[in-house]
Fold:
Amino acid sequence: MLACVVLGAGAWGRPKPLSEPSFDTAEVLYRQGLLPDGTSLRGERQGAEPIEGQAAACANCHRRSGFGVEEGRIVIPPITGKYLFRGSSNDAAQMAHSGSEALSPRRSRYSSETLARAIREGIDPDGRKLDYLMPRFALDDATMSLLIGYLKQLSTHPAPGALTDILQFATIVTPDADPAKRDAMLDVLNHFFGNKNAFYRGDDPPLQRERRIHFRVLRRWQLHVWELSGPPETWETQLQKRFKLEPVFAVIAGIGAKTWGPVHRFCESESLPCLLPNVDLPVVAERDFYSVYFSRGVLLEADVIAARLSNEASIATPPRIVEVFRGGDIGAAAAQALAAAVGNTVTMHELRSKQPARELAAVAREAAGADALVLWLRPDDLKALPAGVSLAKNVFVSGLMGGLEKAPLPPSWRGAARMTYPFDLPEQRTIRMNYPLGWFRIQHIAVVDERIQTDTYLACSIVAEAAGTMLDNFVPDYLLERVEVELSHRIINGYYPRLGLAPGQRFASKGAYIVRFPDPADARVVADGDWIVP
Amino acid sequence: MKGPSNISANVRAVLMSLVAASLTVWATAAEVVVPPAAHHQASAAEETADPQDALPAVTRSVVNYPVPAIRLVRDDGKNVALIDELNDGRPVVLNFIYTTCTGICPLASHVFSQLQHQLGAERDQVHLVSISVDAEEDTPARLRAYAQQYSAGPSWQHYTGTVAASTAAQRAFDTYKGDKMGHTPVTLVRTAPGGPWVRFDGFATAAMLLKELHGKGQITAAVSSTRP
Structure:
């Protein structure tokens, strides 16, 4: 099934496979700038101090995929064997990325000898100097051959799910997901895939020349819906089994409720790009690479509330706070994050009763003298808040959990509440929202959950755009690198004022508003202060 | 499926070439010392017989940039006016960076680090200013960590702020390129408040900046400017 896209081997023939220990050593050199003896790689530039270790690693500029990137007018060229060892070419099937190729100078093909000279002395095969940005590396012969061996095989392995005429994708549904939201998301995905394939010309032969580029790049898209069952501990294994049965190139969207960790771990362990818009409690792990989220969700909300509390002059430091959440729901993690940020004057209240009206009334009484009461609650619990009680000085409501402006707060609470709102304000996003909403209308998609459907549509668009710039190089790491770039210069971002990623950045939207309801009787919200980036 | 504002990669490539071309024209109109940076250095560096001696091709121009009223957040968390930061009486060396940038910025920050070192006893008489072009990601805490990575001394400050403020600062110095990935290497030097800015397009070395600070920039001829 995977035997399809072995890309044309260059003049250098098939790469000699590196043995496993050599491969690992070479990868550490390429990605982390550590030499086989454990010392730091050292790069030199004329007139500048040498750079060492991580700062000197090839992957810094040329990226993990080796396909390089453009930065302004500077093109960091691809350095996979396929490009180095081929001559200058107009053949799109041999290109890395249309932008970088258009700006790259023509050059003759490298040999292992001229490549070693380029790395050591900064001279290309035609005797021209490489750009100043490229340092020189005094590698010994053994290390040089290790590195060149690594470059020869880099990004040559056929990616799972990327076939000659089809790209396979998956979306993931956890068993605790709300069925209505699940269907709303799938409706968007199915229409997007259907649309994509409506342009597909299945009878065309694989791309041979650049004039046929469109046919080659527009592979048919196929969606697999991976529905999980049982307890979260079993999800990772279930996903691995599905992945083996149905190899996919990437995961687009997905929907859960309380737990997302197992899905995140699956994406990382399988090196599978996962663009995950609909996750309100993502996994925050600095070094993780494959899972991309639109924001830090409720953890972002917690930091925004903490930032507001620390800026409010009328609030004591540390503030006395009461937080309410349901055990097992995502609010528990958010409550802990907020408590960690503000100190030990926080009272946590875990809601237990199915009919929580009395419990909530008791909490409200307890919180009446506090600086803030923070509600990490879903709509059903918000509905049960007691009317006619005196409230804490500040009441914060999680917009993500409560349902944003539609949160069913009793009027007395709505008048007092401040709500975290990690999106652009409704009236400011109107024009941006015309794009997804117009598309839904054209597609006859019922808008059941506007945010989930818009975010899912946005995720599909981003993957389509990123994949569209990859030409024939369907390499998982490269997809993520292209997603970083494409997502960062979009303007039509649905609910978000802007999105941005970069190496090491995996949460695209960084801030939130705190909003209030000027009229307790309706759902209109206004900003209570500026956009906060905690 | 694309929004109209998403320019395709091909169009962007062409646009970038145009930008490159127009910058060349602009540079010729200014006080050009060396032709602007090209991918491979063209005929400019050519007097360097030994390519091992390759120094970056840098365009030096003198420009008046009025400093607009912008408030930024300094890496110590303090909200400051850009104009006060620039007009503290000291010469200023300014660049634009972002902390997760892997290509251009590490080199630019290295150069600042080296400049700081080469200034020696004069270090604290020169204000090094690095403004983030990825303001929302680069919180003061992240900037502090980044500064530490480059051993920034007390006279080298990093700045962030709102996206609007960062954009306004980039526009003020004609370095705004739409998004952070579009940035180009630019270093600005001003020896005294109220004076003109000397703008280096390309990878200015610490030695070039030092020479400029010592007031020798004007008299450096083409050759000496490439070979400080």
The two ends of chain A are 47 Å apart (CA to CA). Chain A touches chain B through 64 residues (CB under 8 Å). Chain A has 19 helices and 17 strands. The domain at 166-293+428-488 of chain A is CATH 3.40.50.2300 (Rossmann fold).
